[in-house]
Amino acid sequence: MKPNNIVFIFILSILISCNGQVNIDNNPVQKPLIAKGQLFPELDDKIWDIHQDKKGNYWFGSNGNGVFFYNGKKLRLYTEADGLIDNTIRGIQEDEFGNIFIETPDGVSKFDGKTFVTLTIVADPSNKWKLEPTDLWFNCNGNADDVYRYDGNKLFELKLPRKDLNKAFETVVNGLSFPDMNSSPYSVFGIDKDQKGNLWIGTIVAGAFRYDGDSFIWFAEKELTTLPDGRVPGVRSMIEDRDGYFWLSNFKSKYRVIENENEATYEKLEGIDMSKGQFDNRLPYFNDGLRDKEGNLWMTTYSGGVWKYDGNELQNFPIKDGDEEVLIVSIYQDRQGVLWLGTDNASVFKFNGEIFEKFMLD
User: Fold this and answer.
1) Radius of gyration from C-alpha coordinates of the chain
2) Residues 6+ apart with CB under 8 A from 194
3) What is the residue-averaged pLDDT of the chain?
4) Do residues 239 and 249 make contact, with C-beta atoms less than 8 angstroms apart?
5) Residue-wise pLDDT tens digits, 269-320
6) Rounded CA separation 289/297 (Å)
7) What is the dihedral of CA 20, 22, 23, 28, to 10 degrees?
8) How far apart are CA 298 and CA 294, in angstroms?
């Protein structure tokens, strides 16, 4: 196995290590603390998630040291001491009322501007799925093969449909077996929504699912599970391009959903011609991606830089911090259309229209 493949699998294993415990007691453990935070001079080196709220403030989630809040003037750090359930941040979202939701391996904390409150999980024995425009969706809340839907009031625990994985992929399908990690093949890597509001869910080795509020489409392609050479890229990011095709964490294929009268299906088409040599032996898989406001696709690879695809040309942006290669975890577009990168070793980078530069506080 090539070294870059080993690194890629290693970071993916870290990204789904969601084995913490969540309090499911209906009675609050303690009265919420008033979150004061701590003024901080600079961002952490390991910033895995970025979010700009409705007021224009930025939130930076670190891998183990809490969440940073930046209003353009001062940087403040919130941690467990302020009521945050865990200092390891895996996602940041905002609801229609401006509440901030911090996703961690130990659960989800809701921040109303003053206090952090841990959301209580409601187990639904009937596994009743539902999809509303204002729902928030989470995956790293203690059981990585479960999905969690927040309807503005409660956090419901749901399970993906179980399939005959061995038959579909023509091999014995197992999840990863790293210590302290859920080994289910259905461990959820990524959750995204398309332009119509349909929900897309990517897994470690069980392919991907699309849920439209009524039924599921299952994408059971061999490139979305364990590869013949042993690599486990996983489906972390699902992007819809300007033509309505879907890209599922790889450059090799794109998918078109076919809406039939009785049942929706899909067809797979060639993505980017891999014979042109743009990849230089790098993995043709990406761990995060988005479509920008001009319709271009941006995909990040952990140690291979950022890739831009305008529908015709594929362009690579190597990212370095001095002489050190930057290890990229996430990409985010803010309300002004500016692209940001969260990294595992070099804090945050920001696109200036030509290159990605390291972000420095004013």
Assistant:
1) 20
2) 200, 210, 238, 240, 246
3) 88
4) no
5) 999 886 665 655 556 899 999 999 999 999 999 998 999 999 998 899 999 9
6) 7
7) 110
8) 11
Judging by DSSP bridges, how do beta strands 121-123 and 155-159 pair with one another? parallel
Q: What does the alpha-carbon distance between residue 130 and residue 143 come to, in Å, rounded to a whole number?
A: 20
The Cα–Cα gap between 14 and 246 comes to 26
Residue from 154, 163, 102 nearest 128 by CA: 154
Query: In 10 A of CB 26, how many CB atoms?
Result: 7
| Residues 6+ away with beta carbon under 8 Å from 112 | 99
Token output for 331: 């990409």
**Does an H or E element contain 334, and which?**
none
Tally the C-alpha atoms within 13 A of residue 107's C-alpha that lie toward its C-beta.
19
Query: Rounded distance, CA 303 to CA 186, Å?
Result: 26
Rounded Cα–Cα distance for residues 119 and 108 (Å): 6
Torsion over CA: 360, 346, 292, 103 (sign): negative
Residue 106 Cα to chain centre, angstroms: 16
